Amino acid sequence: MPRGEKSSYTDKQKRQARHIEQSEMKEGRSREDAERIAWATVNKRDGGGKQSGSGRKSGSDKSQTRH
């Protein structure tokens, strides 16, 4: 079982992780590896758990810095 609390993820992120996990298992990976890959993929796409509240940058603004 992967480390970390999953309650801070949105329903959409949890659903995406389940789909990725199923896809990885279909490719022949173990359940543990598939789950690890699934959450790593969700984290890479979204930057972690829930991203809400004021002051959050949108995806396209993350790489831009202010000079």
How would you summarize the topology of this molecule?
Layout: H1 11-26, H2 31-46
Helix pairs in contact: 1-2
Task: Give structural notes.
By secondary structure, this protein is mainly alpha-helical. It has a domain at 10-44. The protein contains 2 helices and no strands. Helix 1 crosses helix 2. The longest helix is centred in the first third of the chain and has 16 residues, at 11-26. The radius of gyration is 14 Å and the shape is elongated. The relative contact order is 0.17.
Key terms:
single chain, 67 residues, mainly alpha, 2 helices
Arithmetic mean of pLDDT: 82
Q: Note poorly predicted spans.
A: none
The helix/strand series, from N terminus to C terminus, equals HH
Distance between the termini: 43 Å
Number of helices: 2
SS-based structural class? Answer: mainly alpha
Outline: elongated
Q: Please bin the fraction of helical residues.
A: 40-55%
Secondary structure: number of strands: 0
- Radius of gyration over C-alpha positions, nearest whole angstrom: 14 Å
Q: In percent terms, what proportion of residues is strand? A: under 5%
Task: Characterize the biggest β-sheet.
Answer: none
Protein name: Plasmid stabilization protein
Organism: Cognatiluteimonas weifangensis
